[in-house]
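Dear colleague,

Thank you for sharing your sequence with our group. We've completed the structure prediction you requested, and as agreed, I am returning the results in plain text so they can be pasted directly into your records. Please verify that the sequence below matches your submission; if there's any discrepancy, let me know and we will rerun it promptly.
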Amino acid sequence: MAVGIFDSGLGGLTVLDAVQKRLPDVPFVYLGDSAHAPYGVRTPDDIYDLTTAAVQRLFDEGCDLVILACNTASAAALRRMQESWIPSDKRVLGVFVPLIEALTERQWGDNSPPREVAVKHVALFATPATVSSRAFQRELAFRAIGVDVEAQACGGVVDAIEEGDFVLAEALVRSHVDALKRKMPEPDAAILGCTHYPLMAQAFQDALGPKATVLSQADLVAESLADYLTRRPEMIGGGTGSTFLTTGDPKRVSDRATQFLRRQITFTAA
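Please find the predicted structure tokens below.
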């Protein structure tokens, strides 16, 4: 048994890297659905079907707790899964929660009325599916008032990262930031709402300028998971090592993953 981490491709490795550093004794099973990436241009039903299939695969691996390290899956599928699909003895958590907690400076279990927070102008960079779901804005509105969110769909960035073309990815980041700044010239904070995007965090920061605080999910998710497992240690399970699974070509995915994390990562077929 281990904690499962799912992503549509390789972006979730940014989350995995952070949680492994924060929780070095916890075993993980990482599943990347590279055969069907990117999710950000798919329909909600398609995203739901692919996500449930992947999570079931992780349940079959003995994971009682699965982290959806994919904003698109968290936005388009998680609520539906929680309402009608997830077994009572399993847990599936998304990656929006730690971001909302950080942005509103309140814990998720805090059900007090929405209140004003320090940040007033937030730029959200995400996949087209995440932007169209408006899940981030909906969850934020439950907890904060007076926050202006401007969302920018960043088409092409995930594809470029998955292909290892970081020159193209950086050019696309600059283009998407320019498009957002035409709508919101001076955001206080920028949310990198896709787990691929931390690989381009410096490009986002350079394009936004020094006044914008760039919030990346990986470290926030790691802290949130550590807190959760402190409260629910039985969800860790009894595994001894981490496993990497892919629906894509294992050699190609292993090469890309090793390039991303700058350490040897070996995937096997899911």
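Summary note from our side: The mean pLDDT is 91.

Kind regards,
the structure core
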